[in-house]
Specification:
It is a single chain. This protein is an all-alpha fold. Helix content is 74%, strand content 0%. The chain contains four helices and no strands. It is flat and about 50 Å long.
Length: 119
């Protein structure tokens, strides 16, 4: 395990969290905190995707991307079967929340298997 790389990645995560927190404090009205969202799972999912790609490389990053794409298809089918219509307003929050969770899991796994052989 490359400890320097993991330390740099953790510092990137902490710096982004700090920037996001400061952005919220400066640009969002403090009286409407219940309505405002501090964390944006779409950006966090992309950040963890990039960090996973940095650990795994070009070949193995396809597996987390396939899982996230399959998740999107499953969510669309679930909405079509359950409500007989597809609405982006319902789809996007659940998609980004679940993909963020999957990318965090992928990132943690990629920390321990960053030197996989490529064919």
């Amino acid at each position: 395990m490359n400890y320097q790389r993991v330390l740099i990645e953790i510092l990137i995560i902490i710096c982004y969290w700090f920037v996001e927190k400061m952005f919220f404090m400066v640009f969002v009205n403090g009286t409407k905190q219940l309505q405002a969202r501090i964390h944006h799972p779409s950006i966090w999912a992309i950040l963890f995707l990039v960090l996973t790609w940095w650990n795994l490389g070009y070949y193995y990053i396809a597996y987390p991307i396939i899982i996230v794409a399959s998740l999107g298809i499953i969510l669309v089918l679930k909405q079509l079967i359950g409500q007989h219509e597809f609405l982006y307003r319902i789809f996007w929050p659940s998609f980004w929340n679940l993909s963020c969770l999957l990318m965090v899991i992928s990132y943690v796994i990629s920390i321990f298997c960053y030197q996989l052989p490529t064919p």
